[in-house]
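Components:
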Amino acid sequence: MKNNTLTLNELFNHPDVRKTTGPQDMERIEAVLEKESNAPKEPVFIRALLGLGAWVAAIFLTIFSYEMEKSSTGAIIFGCAFMGAGIILSRIHRAVFLQQLALALAFAGNLLILYGVGEKCDRFHEIVPVLVLTHAALCLLVYPLLQNSIYRFLAPIGLTILLIVWIVDEKAFDWIHVLIAAEAVLTGVLFLKNRVPQFFKPLAYAAAFMLPSTLLFWNLYQTAEFSDIFLGRNHIEPLWPATLFLAGGLIYIYFHLSGGLSRIAKPWMILALGATIFLGIFSTPGILVVIGLLVLGYSLDEWILTWLAYVFLPVFLIVFYYNLQISLEYKSYIIMGSGLILLGVRWIAGRLMPKEVVR
Amino acid sequence: MAMINNPLDKKADLKTIRKLYQDGFIKPEAFQAAQAVLRSPADWFIWAGQLLLFIGSALVLSGIIFFFAYNWDKMGRFYKLGLLEGLILACAVSSQWLWRKKLEAKVLLLSAAVLVGVLMAVYGQIYQTGADAYELFTGWAALIFGWVLVCEFAALWFVWLVILNTGLIFYWVQVGHPAHEYSYELLWLALAGLNGAALIFRELGALAKLEWLNGRWLRIILFMALLLALSIPTTQLIVDWHVTGILWLSAGIWIVAAGLGYWLYRFRWLDFLVLGLIVMNACYLLITLIGKNLFDYVEHEEAGTYLLMAMIILAIVSAAALWLRLLAQKIKKTGQGGLQ
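Structure:
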């Protein structure tokens, strides 16, 4: 019997599961599933459509308010009013149009406040840190109040982008590693902890999206073409701190999912650890993130994480090829070697397979 | 259509189990037991094996491509060509040899097909044939066509389509536009034709119970490519309003493709994601059309025009989302599936 074709009924009647659930539990489960199946469920692409529509509408709302009052104070006042109206609307009615309007008002309010505050700065180098702090404060305030998963997903992404701009603007490149570590921890905690409230779900997806994106930006930033534009010189910042942290994080995921440190002596765990350390040394940290997302995606049935990983995998391979500061010949050897080792790991893993898999 | 009366008859997935646990409906031990059943060591081994095969092969192939991109002077031309031909032969023969292990055999044939492209590029590099890039891509597609037919592997078929699409784009850039003055709208129509034909082939294959063509991802990507190729000239028609036959033709084909797509994926092979794509695309074109007319007819762009435009966008998108939600509920009630 293939497990991935089990129905919920078959799963709860499986001998291992049945002994942990009583008849009363089953009644409650059936009742809650019945309720769930009657509740409207929104596919991801409808949320994407709503988010995109609100975002475009927010741009027009922003221009509208700018046309009405062309001053920084006016922008802040309009921004606060839009934000407040958005929060109230999101809480009073669940009608689609009102929810859309609330989201568009929140986006426009956010943009206007940032614009107004930025305009108020006297010195140019103050603008970015002020924007970071303002947006962080807005996120903290609005995230719990505005009942909209799209805003809760996009606002932290906006904050991360502003943080990256601040790091680049200040040339405080060490902080990029701190940012990557923070994104990795947030992704791990929010996805692996079993009792995280639904409220944090959009934040979890935002962190999972920004982790490979930040790494990709960082990889691209270090290419000669990109770096010359912004710095006027080729800037090379070591990637090893991020690599070290991410390899550690990936190893933690293995132990967490397999049942703890007691598994360390298992041959397949030794193999997984060896392959991870090897990839950490010879490959780009992006590949470690991709593997981490694939593992999380599979273990939690989160197809968004799986697709995110598949989209970023070829991108990281190409960027890795461009970024390696060695001759093309050695690049090809390293990449081929990495591939051969993974295929070798697969071959060895095949020998370690439990009997049930072989059957 | 069969109704799903009992919610417990739904396919078991970890997301549902996790939610039940998070909401306190099942105990930690029950959650762990369910997790162990749905993700048994056997499942993990199979999954990891496929992942390692996929990433490992991708890395080896990338390494080979980079190796030959280096244009190694120390290697003679016969050595270079011989090595590549040897690799292609080795992949093809081992694929035949491993035919019992289906996935490995298919990945090997896919590798051989990719290496044919590398061989052609190296050949052009050595002999300086002066061939245009489009010749390389179309020639490559022609040479591996036989393998595409016999391999029964959606990934290889997809790679072949990507190569053909690239060849077509290069043909327009290098020959079609400079030598024959083919308009760019014609390029988009040709791309729509190619991807539309591939989509029809995929659907016919699925109807004929060809399991390898049954992947939903292929349908989604092909339908997206078709809509994109038709939307660009249609947008041009809306924005520029310079009436050329080919723009009207593109817009006409968009209407037919969207209408037919709606009928097929609503009533024949229900696919809610394709319906969503059609609706999203229609929203985009409608908003562009209204926006263009609104800003054309307003002489002085006043603040109110922007507010009106924002409300129009919200109204259109909300109506589309509401309609999709209602449709989703209707489909769910009839238990038709396809709601992902």
